[in-house]
């Protein structure tokens, strides 16, 4: 588990964008956040229902960075240095995909991926990268951590 505090927190968007962005904690929490309620399903069988997430919609972050036409995927990096995953641009633009900062009104605990994690409500939770610190816009496909181990890239939950 990476030790992330408000002192060493950093977050960036780079790769195939017109305006690469980077934030420290103070800058990051100044962005306007939205609130949504969704369920959270791990592929191994457990679920959390009616979780209230507060954060920044991914589509807004991507719009502010100016995604270039050649970009086909968003690659998500965890500060743990091991875990990565991707979404297609279309999946990433879904209205409920969020970079979350609060869970049920509280800061996200370190063990649950805080201070900042991805939330992809339509997909199994392995797409919801914990300790998110970088999003890179890329052209070639990248195979994420669990997908290298056999899970599906398009991890839609059938409900
Ligand atoms: N960086 C990172 N993100 C991750 C994981 C992980 O091991 N490392 N596990 C994933 C899986 S399989 C699930 S079910 C959820 C679990 O989130 P939780 O630990 O907050 O319950 O995080 C996802 N994101
Ligand atoms: Mo999981």
From TrEMBL:
One Pfam family linked to the record: Oxidored_molyb
Alphabetized InterPro entries for the sequence: OxRdtase_Mopterin-bd_dom, OxRdtase_Mopterin-bd_sf
Cited SUPFAM superfamilies: Oxidoreductase molybdopterin-binding domain
Domain of life the protein comes from: Bacteria
Domain Oxidoreductase molybdopterin-binding: 2-146
Protein name (record): Molybdopterin-dependent oxidoreductase
Organism field: Halobacillus salinarum
């Amino acid at each position: 588990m990476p030790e992330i505090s408000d002192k060493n927190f950093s977050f960036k968007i780079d790769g195939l964008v017109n305006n690469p962005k980077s934030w420290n904690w103070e800058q990051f929490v100044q962005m306007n956040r939205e609130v949504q309620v969704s369920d959270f399903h791990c592929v191994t069988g457990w679920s959390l229902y009616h979780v209230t997430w507060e954060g920044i919609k991914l589509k807004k972050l991507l719009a502010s960075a100016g995604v270039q036409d050649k970009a086909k995927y968003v690659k998500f990096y965890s500060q743990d240095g091991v875990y990565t995953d991707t979404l297609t641009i279309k999946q990433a633009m879904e209205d409920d995909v969020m970079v979350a900062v609060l869970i049920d009104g509280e800061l996200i605990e370190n063990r649950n991926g805080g201070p900042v994690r991805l939330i992809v409500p339509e997909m199994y939770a392995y797409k919801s990268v914990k300790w998110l610190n970088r999003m890179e816009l890329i052209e070639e496909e990248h195979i994420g951590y669990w997908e290298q181990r056999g899970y599906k890239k398009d991890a839609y939950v059938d409900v």
